[in-house]
Write a structure and sequence with these properties.
133 residues; alpha+beta; Lipocalin; eight-stranded antiparallel β-barrel; 8 strands
Length: 133
């Protein structure tokens, strides 16, 4: 009787299978409800841009969902689309309010404690991003 893992074809496919499972694990950590702030640097001082995300779909390093952020007393709602590669998380949250469409972008890192921290931008403004579940 042959042992299952003794077959050369199965042995050669094992690293591919394990690496694909590892890629999915990073995505699963992003799934769910998130809230955070993009603290923008302006000429008048720091400006807080609070946001919320609901990440509901992930596949092979790509994720999507819905989200909202507040700016000047208005709530912009729309879609979030992004990528995750290891610890690097990049996304765009496109918000719509009253016919206006604006985008908040982020380039951040998934920290060991589960938080996401990095850089964000809104129009020509840049700042620091911090979000958690």
């Amino acid at each position: 009787m042959r042992r299952l893992f003794a077959h050369p074809l199965l042995l050669s496919a094992l690293p591919l299978l394990l690496s694909s499972l590892g890629g999915c694990a990073g995505d699963a950590r992003l799934r769910g409800e998130w809230s955070g702030d993009c603290l923008l640097e302006t000429v008048d001082g720091p400006r807080r841009l609070p946001f919320e995300l609901a990440i509901d779909a992930q596949r092979q390093g790509v994720f999507s969902g819905t989200g909202a952020f507040e700016y000047d007393g208005y709530t912009f709602q729309g879609d979030v689309d992004g990528t995750v590669d290891g610890a690097q998380v990049i996304f765009d949250l496109v918000g719509i309010y009253g016919g206006y469409t604006v985008t908040m972008a982020a380039d951040a890192e998934l920290e060991d404690n589960g938080d996401v921290e990095g850089d964000c931008s809104f129009f020509e403004l840049t700042g620091d991003l911090d979000m958690d579940q």
